[in-house]
Design brief:
Blueprint lengths: L30 E3 L5 E3 L12 E7 L1 H4 L6 H12 L4 E3 L3 E2 L4 E2 L2 E2 L3 E4 L23 E5 L13 H15 L4 E6 L7 H20 L4 E5 L6 H4 L9 H15 L5
Parallel strand pairs: 3-4, 3-8, 3-9, 9-10, 10-11
Antiparallel strand pairs: 1-2, 5-8, 6-7
Helix pairs in contact: 2-6, 3-4
Length: about 250
């Protein structure tokens, strides 16, 4: 898989329309459990504006930043949206990625921070900057917690982060990802990933707008990890983009 960008991959300026403060509040039923280990959404919840691009905040560590492949899963997610005629852009304080994807300007903003842990995501979940306010948050975090001093506490830290995000952004759809494989820390990856369905489903039952994307199941370490055995290669990032798109596509316009 690959070949999406049509121009270079150096860091660049903020995307066109990426700081629009238009629209995006939604209402309606709480998400409910769905098939395939993901939570779905019921009722008429519609986080994205009908006309302006849906603002997505990619939140996480270096796997969101795009070590080994600039733009990370954000490139494939953007490609998928373009192919379906959907309008999205990205928000965040960081910028990198290709200049163009499918002959369209690629929105480079994101909030991926190399080396960051779950708790280090908290400041980005507490902003009240209206121009930053996302319609959808894609969260892939926990890899750096697997080898820290207290990996056993990672599920509780992730639960606290989910609660912080959903309280800060009550009208935003939060997509919590099962993290990709990290072979040298397989047991701790499993510990985190096994906790995510219950974390998501229990919050959904409380009326929170939160769903799950499974970036672990089907991720082939032999062909989707880069040579460092931590970060995905382009094929792996494309897999992640496909997984995120599969659960958010129905919310896009």
């Amino acid at each position: 898989m690959g070949g999406r960008p049509s121009m270079g991959g150096s860091a660049g300026s903020a995307p066109m329309g990426g700081r629009s403060s238009t629209g995006g509040t939604g209402s309606g039923g709480a998400p409910a459990a769905g098939s395939g280990g993901s939570a779905g959404s019921g009722g008429d919840f519609d986080p994205c504006p009908a006309t302006d691009p849906c603002k997505i905040l990619p939140l996480g560590d270096s796997i969101t930043f795009g070590i080994q492949y600039e733009g990370a899963y954000r490139v494939e997610l953007f490609h998928k949206a373009l192919a379906d005629g959907k309008k999205i852009t990205y928000v965040g304080s960081q910028t990198n990625g290709p200049s163009m994807v499918d002959n369209m300007p690629f929105p480079k903003n994101h909030e991926g921070h190399s080396g960051y842990t779950i708790d280090q995501m908290k400041p980005f979940a507490m902003t009240t900057d209206v121009s930053y306010m996302p319609n959808i948050i894609t969260l892939h975090i926990g890899t750096n917690d697997t080898y820290g001093s207290t990996p056993s506490g990672a599920p509780m830290r992730l639960q606290a982060l989910v609660d912080l995000i959903t309280s800060t952004y009550p009208n935003t759809l939060l997509v919590v990802a099962k993290i990709v494989p990290y072979p040298s820390q397989a047991a701790n990856v499993k510990l985190i990933n096994d906790s995510i369905p219950d974390t998501v489903n229990s919050r959904a039952m409380q009326g929170k707008h939160v769903i799950m994307a499974d970036c672990f199941t089907g991720f082939m370490t032999s062909s989707m990890l880069s040579s460092d055995s931590i970060h995905p290669n382009q094929t792996g990032y494309n897999f992640m983009g496909d997984q995120f798109y599969s659960v958010i596509s129905k919310y896009l316009h």
